[in-house]
Write a structure and sequence with these properties.
By secondary structure, the protein is of the alpha+beta class. It has twelve helices and four strands, in the order H-H-H-H-H-H-H-H-H-H-E-H-E-E-H-E.
Length: about 325
């Protein structure tokens, strides 16, 4: 199949990209839906999965669970979520972007409302696993709920509050490694406190360490859920193609995929021969089309496909940082 090098799609500019987005109806609808779903997931996971199965998580939600259990339900989780997050949100308005602080404040308010609804209207509703061996499913479900909630909040430029606000504030002053260690220390203290809150003197020592093990598993599932959803939204595929028909290949890729192509020199260390290498980043749904183009233009070419965890820029995803 021959491709005419003079026939190329019009160049996509920033103005073209913005025009595509202007025509979308209700641009705020996505933000509203994400806020409602994210705040419900984190409240549902804490109230119906984590608390009745006697373990906790990190951050403000974990502190709320511990205080609720330690006081036999006198201190409601909704009080803790609102009370501890309120001063952090106020600090956020001074030290981070106003949009981030505003969306986080709305998220915290919705968390409080969902928790009040669950505590007042459905006080006995819980998903409790009686057997200790089954409690791992509670940690799995809680991790998925909170991880998904955190990812959705980040997608719209906000957060779920608590440690997320602290991390963004500290990021302006310290290295990323310092943030990671500080958040780890906070979560370690909260999770470690569960050993005393859920301690049962009638059980063996190994059984009393079960809440900590479940918390560790929940935090692992939470991070993986967050990572999977985030990368799923902003992931792409990078192709590196070594071909003796760079002009035809590049023209075909730009025409069929409407993606930019970069040519780099590549030297084979065995033959010492120089060949052109084309670099192209595409979305996952375009992989089949790219494979077809490579096969049609130059079946003898050599191509390497690499998964890219995140891609930002014109034609893909814009950054809110």
């Amino acid at each position: 199949m021959e491709y005419n090098q003079n026939i190329l799609p019009p160049k996509i500019t920033k103005e073209n990209f913005n025009e595509r987005r202007v025509g979308k109806a209700f641009p705020w609808l996505k933000t509203v839906i994400y806020l409602l779903v994210s705040s419900f997931l984190i409240s549902f996971g804490a109230k119906t999965l984590i608390t009745p199965n006697e373990f906790t998580v990190g951050g403000v939600i974990g502190i709320g669970v511990l205080l609720n259990v330690a006081t036999n339900g006198f201190i409601q989780q909704s009080w803790v979520v609102f009370g501890l997050n309120f001063p952090l949100v106020v600090l956020g308005f001074f030290f981070v972007k106003k949009k981030f602080a505003f969306l986080t404040a709305i998220h915290i308010g919705l968390q409080t409302v969902w928790l009040l609804i669950l505590e007042s209207l459905f006080p006995d509703f819980s998903i409790e696993f009686v057997e200790s061996g089954e409690k791992i499913f509670a940690a799995l479900g809680g991790g998925i709920c909170i991880g998904a909630a955190t990812a959705l909040a980040f997608q719209i430029g906000g957060s779920t509050g608590g440690a997320d606000i602290v991390a963004v504030i500290i990021q302006r002053k310290f290295a990323a490694s310092s943030i990671a260690w500080m958040l780890f220390a906070v979560n370690f203290v909260v999770v470690g406190a569960s050993l005393f809150v859920f301690y049962d003197p009638t059980q063996a020592i190994a059984y009393n360490f079960l809440p900590i093990m479940m918390s560790a598993f929940e935090l692992y599932v939470e991070s993986k859920s967050n990572e999977s959803i985030t990368n799923g939204f902003q992931s792409a595929i990078e192709f590196r193609i070594i071909t003796n028909k760079p002009e035809e290949m590049a023209q075909a890729l730009m025409r069929e995929l409407s993606r930019g192509v970069t040519m780099l020199p590549a030297t084979g260390m065995y033959t010492k021969e120089e060949h052109p290498m084309l670099l192209c980043v595409i979305s996952r749904r375009q992989v089949a089309t790219l494979r077809r183009v490579i096969k049609e233009v130059d079946p003898d070419s050599f191509a390497v496909m690499t998964g890219v965890s995140q891609v930002l820029g014109l034609g893909f995803y814009t950054s809110e940082l």
